[in-house]
Amino acid sequence: xxxxxxxxxxxxxxxxxxxxxxxxxxxxxxxxxxxxxxxxxxxxxxxxxxxxxxxxxxxxxxxxxxxxxxxxxxxxxxxxxxxxxxxxxxxxxxxxxxxxxxxxxxxxxxxxxxxxxxxxxxxxxxxxxxxxxxxxxxxxxxxxxxxxxxxxxxxxxxxxxxxxxxxxxxxxxxxxxxxxxxxxxxxxxxxxxxxxxxxxxxxxxxxxxxxxxxxxxxxxxxxxxxxxxxxxxxxxxxxxxxxxxxxxxxxxxxxxxxxxxxxxxxxxxxxxxxxxxxxxxxxxxxxxxxxxxxxxxxxxxxxxxxxxxxxxxxxxxxxxxxxxxxxxxxxxxxxxxxxxxxxxxxxxxxxxxxxxxxxxxxxxxxxxxxxxxxxxxxxxxxxxxxxxxxxxxxxxxxxxxxxxxxxxxxxxxxxxxxxxxxxxxxxxxxxxxxxxxxxxxxxxxxxxxxxxxxxxxxxxxxxxxxxxxxxxxxxxxxxxxxxxxxxxxxxxxxxxxxxxxxxxxxxxxxxxxxxxxxxxxxxxxxxxxxxxxxxxxxxxxxxxxxxxxxxxxxxxxxxxx
Length: 561
Prior knowledge:
38% of the residues lie in helices and 21% in strands. By secondary structure, the protein is of the alpha/beta class. The protein folds into three domains: 3-245, ANL, N-terminal domain (Rossmann fold); 252-317 and 320-434, Rossmann fold; 437-557, ANL, C-terminal domain (GMP Synthetase, Chain A, domain 3). An eight-stranded mixed β-sheet has the order 2-1-10-9-11-12-13-14, sandwiched between helices. Helix 1 (3-13) crosses helix 2, helix 7 (174-192) packs across helix 8 and helix 10 crosses helix 12. The chain is globular and about 70 Å long. The protein starts with a helix and ends with a helix.
């Protein structure tokens, strides 16, 4: 059976059971049984048939996550149509560029507001249809099996975020998805053990991304109850309603949860509460390192049934693990969740690898690392410690970009552009990104991510840290405050002496060319809305360098050449 045939069979088996739900208003679940979901899929398939779409045609979906998004996605794939999911939070010019490149026959918009947004892109739109038109009517329709896909048949084109240029369409075929679903199911079986009840899975990551799509299809293929976020502003409230066993996260969300928990401890417990927590966290780190601290271990023992249980309760009573990917996760944040009893399982992959290359073992996650390679693929290090991958998860190519495809798949390996290292147990760590390398005037190449992470550990009050210094004689850093205030550096919510102390401590451990010689506190948090982060929380380094060009220039004016 193909992955799609397996999904349809599983939904049919669960005809009387809830398989998917939406959290409405942050406080109630609206559930749909397998039969109800199949009815929506069949209605969408009937509509698609009236528009004459054929196997290999492309159709774009522009909408927020929802049950109708899922039904339309499955209906299009069942008819052999290649799905092009669009990012509803992308700026208009980027969306217009994707449509010009993908040339879909139809564009499906979730509602009138989405259609208006699309019309404001200024570009020519394909024939456009609202969800209400697709799912109109309530006459029962006879079910039908999905079209059979060969492994080489393309089923979706997912556009990369385009942080350093125009986005490219990554073509994923049926074989890519089937292989990755088999591996995600293996890991989730290990996490859930012999539990007979359906997995409760919460999903807030938007379906346009490869990782979110893999979680969606994995959940539909197994005994799961998938619960969708409909309001990203009320995520914590929605998590409490969903009561999930696990869900996929970006580091930004986990770091916010950690900071809110620590703020709550300071607000409710005052100086004593903060000191108690700090002593427990320090003891936990010592315990992991095999060090002794009898009094500290007592604090840790006291915190587990009281303080940690209260924090854990904010994520629901069922939570077994948090899954994290898309960007580097601060090791202190991972340790925080492990300390309170929630393992964070890291996943590494790119859109071109069908979202996954490595996954943490649920029984043995290693903080700061992203787990071993999934079975059935090969990973090795190439020149400059670049991670190279080959296997059934590797995409078939970039849409209408043969030269870039050939470059990415040179010598039969996918060149990720990421740098990594492998330990003796076969567990990977991501150390940097080749395209992010800072080239100093001395000729030294510096990967910014390890230094940014090391400084972030010493400055937990910083919201974001960005290393700069390309073609300069030394490194400097931009630091965004958690609660930025207006005015000069001296008025920032960050304590400047603490910043300098953190830099001094870090620099003492570094070779001369990696020492950070200057810093500037930014009074603007980097967000997707202001164009400084991608929608998955990654730094748009080129945009940041351009926005703060004068501040960066000032950092080097008084430095010796």
